[in-house]
## 1
Amino acid sequence: MALSGLAIYKLLPKTNCKECGFPTCLAFAMKLAAKQVELAACPYVSDEARESLAAAAAPPIRLITISSDGRKIEAGNETVMFRHEKTFYHEPGLLVRVKDTQPLEEFEEVVTQAASYSVERVGMELSVSGFAVENASGDPALFAERVGVLRAIADLPLVLISSDPAALEAAVAKLEGDVPLLYAADQDNWQAMAELAKKHKLPLAVRGEGDPSTSSGHRLTALANLVEQVKNAGVEDIVLDPGAREPVDTLVNLTQLRRLALKKNFRLLGYPIITFPGEGAASEAEEVALAAQHVAKYGGFIVLDHFDPATMYSLLTLRLNIYTDPQKPIQMEPGIYEFGEPTADSPLLTTTNFSLTYFSVAGEVESTGKPCWLLVCDAEGMSVLTAWAAGNFDAEVITKMVKQFNAGEKIAHRKIVIPGLVAVISGELEDELSGWEVLVGPREAVDIPAYLKFWQN
């Protein structure tokens, strides 16, 4: 049974040292009771108290990891329903499904294309998380062979899909050192599946009833009962598939599972969720839309039936946006960045250190091929207009950055270009930067190439 904040407080050292990040031990206890912080944040809790608080300290959603050759997907350990409450921690894995019934050439082509796909956004390399291999043939030998073929092409985390424990056993033998997810235990095979997962110490997906005529409450009750049986058989690392596939049913089930884990502390359903958006879609476009729903609400492992670079980019970008800490924007290191081989006569532009702003500006500057200096100011990760409104990108800040990074030593013309959105600070900046000429550049990054085309020292 979960402990109350006051019960937890009685077991804490009560020193109010603030090293946990909270002003008092009571405040920390309340957060611990709400599953919004980990016990490890308290450096002075005794071993006896730690043992007593084990249940209260355990995350409401168990962390599950699948891995291969150092690459891994982690799902779980989430503490909030909505990212603005704090943040989401472990982004869902986006996996591409292949089947052992596909012609070998087609199988290899899909795996090769998906595994080699990579795109850069705001300085981060985004790629496919892994693969799901389905034993559609029902032949354990063919299934194991295709798993081996895939592994020879790509060292990425895997989900192994089969209702036959023998087929999964044969496939696992091809993956020495890897930690795949076994999918799935159901009411008919859970005992053999649990035995296999326990034997190899692998996570096991548990699949609930998918009958749309059955109420959501009944389906989740049946799923909890099945999870309890699997747990009692000795399997601790579990992934949930509530069985729903239709968009509305999926949204309802995934939301209810998250709420039961976080708000009700219902341990039997406190696990990450695997989803199959292609099975609830009538087209590839619908699959992408449903996958986007699962990224936001609340998929942990999302298995796609199609791979297309354009749609994958959309999902990866959405995932990046949702799983970026809203309280800590992605930032660039402040400083002076070089484009091309700038000289003392090259233009000096300035912007903020919000990553999306930086890469928008950098992309346009690079497209011109014109050597350029770019002064990136510390604006606490805010965009230009937001930073100006907050007082983090004004004449005083820019002047400080110019002096801190010795911009005057890099250029001879003493001209600095500020974004058009903050043209209002140009006069004040000229007063601050004695001897400098302040030029007002474009309002939008897309207009930078045209502006630089007519640059004159």
## 2
Amino acid sequence: MFHLAADRRHSDAWRTQRENEYPIYEFMSSRLTNVHSHRVLPEAIISYGGNAYGRVTFDTTQDAPSVRYDIVDTEGKV
């Protein structure tokens, strides 16, 4: 299971492990305006403090479908 969110400070990916349950992943995207940066969060799977957007890609062609979250900055760098 995953959750999509937006934040005005940074882009992150989080994993929350639940007891006796599957984990929940949260993909959070920052803003593309208000040019300034924020600290990254080392406890996240990945964290980016600059202006960016999140790109979510699903692959349902495999027996075990997958999801990929990319953080893309304003210059197109993943």
## 3
Amino acid sequence: MSVHKTITVNLGQRSYPIVIGRELLDGGFDLTSFVKGRDCLIVSNETVAPLYCKRLAPNLAGKTITSIELPDGEEHKTVATMQTILDRLVATGANRDTTVIALGGGVVGDIAGFAAACYMRGVAFIQIPTTLLAQVDSSVGGKTGVNHARGKNLIGAFHQPRAVVIDTDTLATLPDRELRAGLAEVIKHGAICELGFFEWIEQNIDALLAKDPAALAHAIQRSCEVKAGVVAEDEREAGRRAILNFGHTFGHAIEHSQGYGVWLHGEAVAAGMVMAAELSGIAASDVQRLCKLLQRTGLPTEPPTIAAEDWMRAMGLDKKVRQKQLRFVLLRSLGDAYFTAAYDEKRLGQIIGRKI
């Protein structure tokens, strides 16, 4: 069996492992202990399935496996796509002992997890993320869902996986653009709560972009440790977990305004982090430092042209809004984030207004 690192998301009876290593597919990690019943449905997409679906079978020895391939892309993260998963579960006679296995990036994980949350009021699921963004962010924490025409991730549920299995070898086939988008979330983890990690990324960004296995393994492990710790404190985002959304209020507005899939999630979050840093009122040197790292990563630091009223309309549907009051994740300094409804409204107007 492969050498791997295990991080536990501590949620009492809903606790689960994040397993990180190389050569975990092809039977390199036994998944059967996380599959209580006989039947599994592997949910993947048309890009990932030909690469990894058959390779996953040895990890599920003795189980009955069916699979479904979804269309690839954020624009397909819809109720209609989720319906195809539910239809397959019904067609195969799946029961409450069936396990849904998400094999792919964040879109696959979110849709498959939401289908698992809904089918028979909840069946087990396992995350096997194959993109960097999914490995460091969306596969951990139990957020599942789909987009609505008027906003991102407006329809969904909290549904924790039984396990998250991260085979870092899958990154070898990841396109460079998607690698950079995933690094946006890695940078975010350093920016919100660990300056030392942010500094490590600055020192190792060239190795990360070159897909150095050791550098990627450390970035994934540290990101998962950060996220697991925050989720354990606040599973359903009642307070502290919101800091994981640094840059996302602006970023989701960018994704929505441009059409899902035009800007990758990590690209939109990168520009959104710069906007949030500017709104924070932190030292200009800290904002410049964040910009420089994102630019070295090949990520955008300026949003597209969006009318101020469209910014406000999109951000008004953000899930962090309470009583029609926008709330933002801001920085006291790099490595120190907080969640607040107290922000400089005039400064916000300048930030979104100058982008017209």
